[in-house]
Ubiquitin carboxyl-terminal hydrolase
Amino acid sequence: MQRRGALFGMPGGSGGRKMAAGDIGELLVPHMPTIRVPRSGDRVYKNECAFSYDSPNSEGGLYVCMNTFLAFGREHVERHFRKTGQSVYMHLKRHVREKVRGASGGALPKRRNSKIFLDLDTDDDLNSDDYEYEDEAKLVIFPDHYEIALPNIEELPALVTIACDAVLSSKSPYRKQDPDTWENELPVSKYANNLTQLDNGVRIPPSGWKCARCDLRENLWLNLTDGSVLCGKWFFDSSGGNGHALEHYRDMGYPLAVKLGTITPDGADVYSFQEEEPVLDPHLAKHLAHFGIDMLHMHGTENGLQDNDIKPRVSEWEVIQESGTKLKPMYGPGYTGLKNLGNSCYLSSVMQAIFSIPEFQRAYVGNLPRIFDYSPLDPTQDFNTQMTKLGHGLLSGQYSKPPVKSELIEQVMKEEHKPQQNGISPRMFKAFVSKSHPEFSSNRQQDAQEFFLHLVNLVERNRIGSENPSDVFRFLVEERIQCCQTRKVRYTERVDYLMQLPVAMEAATNKDELIAYELTRREAEANRRPLPELVRAKIPFSACLQAFSEPENVDDFWSSALQAKSAGVKTSRFASFPEYLVVQIKKFTFGLDWVPKKFDVSIDMPDLLDINHLRARGLQPGEEELPDISPPIVIPDDSKDRLMNQLIDPSDIDESSVMQLAEMGFPLEACRKAVYFTGNMGAEVAFNWIIVHMEEPDFAEPLTMPGYGGAASAGASVFGASGLDNQPPEEIVAIITSMGFQRNQAIQALRATNNNLERALDWIFSHPEFEEDSDFVIEMENNANANIISEAKPEGPRVKDGSGTYELFAFISHMGTSTMSGHYICHIKKEGRWVIYNDHKVCASERPPKDLGYMYFYRRIPS
């Protein structure tokens, strides 16, 4: 073991030699070009290894690269040296010792400890009155492991001294995650103080929102100027929208919008289109009140609870956390907790459930050497590296060890205390996965279900080769829509990752008890007496499953059979069953006064679940399909001009939309064509183009750019010319067919009008007697056949279909009145018994509250 404060030759060999102190400068000369002083904006990691949860508190300490300022534990620093050639590291180590006792047996009086210079969290398990800390820093030069104790002003070059001081005095890169500083990170919008709000009488209801320009009901934003409710950006997992909120800003110039569903007594997510970033609105309560949303009333109800209002929620907290029961702590592999960073329990609960699934364990922890060896130069910004790091931290048992036996404590304390680290802090993981996300990057509580879908999105986008562990959650939903007037039907399929079950309150089996409880509660409130013991509604799981399968009305249904709006009903079934079924109980809603409400119910969730009866059956004998005609689309002149401009330059293709479609399993070239031919109008519109064109023989061919409009080639201007030169541009054909006209009709109209869009539309309306010319059709087929590159049918989304019989292995519970507040914990069944994961505490469960969960995880039972 080398001593501190000295410089040594090569360790462990007879060829090693001691060097004079004056040789320190000479030793550093070859490495001076690689030593940097941290600049403003550099992230200096001195609390946590990039590949593990080692810290200066760990036995081997932490090595900080003096060039990249990344930190590595003893097990991983050699990898960074081999990959980058960076040789100079600062080694940081915190020692914990028992305090020296005075003559009376008590600890000596407290005084300022000048030996502490690292900005670290102290160990919660240690009583600071009994222990003292001493921090140690030294430079280490690889590969020979020469050590130079710090500080060493006299002998070190000035640049090295300045760099070392800057590293030691740097602030944590996670500072903005701290509760007291997060809000200061968001700027106040310059439009908030003088925001114009139209007096148009708009009042926003507490539920039932829908985009004003499409039928989407998720990711909706309320414009604070005119009260328009419009959708945000669309993601492949259906968690977004068509970008209509941004389009509305471009059309009208109204700068601020608030996301519906994020409004809580503490604020909401506000975005400034003009400033292009999330912002703070100091007058948000006033701006929301303009549209009938009373935040102040919400605040008084949710945070200003009276004493007699608290009892039901306390009861819920006690039951879910199994309070009042002496729970046995559990240690070892798979029993590692996650420390709460301040409202990060939603993340912890989801990740505990995720890494209890073998497919995720194999994909990340099973590939640890390969993922770490091939990680980018900054592994803190790589999703797969951080997932592997978190999985290894949870599963290795390295950070979950039982306390030292009592008979050894005194002997250990005589020399140096070596604390056992129990639980890991997911700061680096949270910082990366929440990056650029206005909700998860904040310090507010979030919805575990939304984070689950966000995580699936990240897994999809960062798949490791062909391996994609999120395949185990993916399934296809068959949606059957029936026109109530003509009785004709349409079958479509969509991808989903979880099953959302409504709470069938009307099916409560203890209605008489509920009525009696409500009467007694009101009487107690009126007379200021203690409230009676809470009575929860008992809902049969079968009733919730029945409610899921019931037909639902389709608002604003457009019947292609009637060519008009009509009444329609929709039913959903499973076109495939996933390997792992995630079930969300839809417990949260809003009251008429916009106060968040939670259904405080008990549902008898089964340990064994059979949903085979929900298997989709497709078109049945006797059913007649609705015509495959799209609703008429009215394109305003300005939007038409913008669309045409977007079509001119193929370099403007929205690559994010392309990748979202490609991640669903469609060929890359087909995705590029879909986005191009729909004018960058979003991934969902492009997806519809794919569904319409995926059977065409040239579906997967590379995108080719024919001329169009006034720039069309001469050969295209002559109607009746043969060959490829006479092909109208596909992008204009797509616009016309999206309006409900036949493809051949669109092509003939364009040929007759020199590929002019507006004249082609006039031609179609002036030729209602249009009939397909057989010669025209044959010619088109010959042209298409001559250019076939591949006739292979594209693969759709990958699913792991099988039996619909499952067993419960995990569930996440929520305590509190809203997903934006409260606390989450997770129960997982391991080795035949239930285990409770409550932040960093992991214990054997005695009474798992399976009836009070929010999200349930089922695994398929092999048939």
User: Anything to note?
Assistant: The chain has a mean pLDDT of 79. The CA atoms of residues 320 and 328 lie 16 Å apart. The longest helix spans residues 511-526. The radius of gyration is 32 Å.
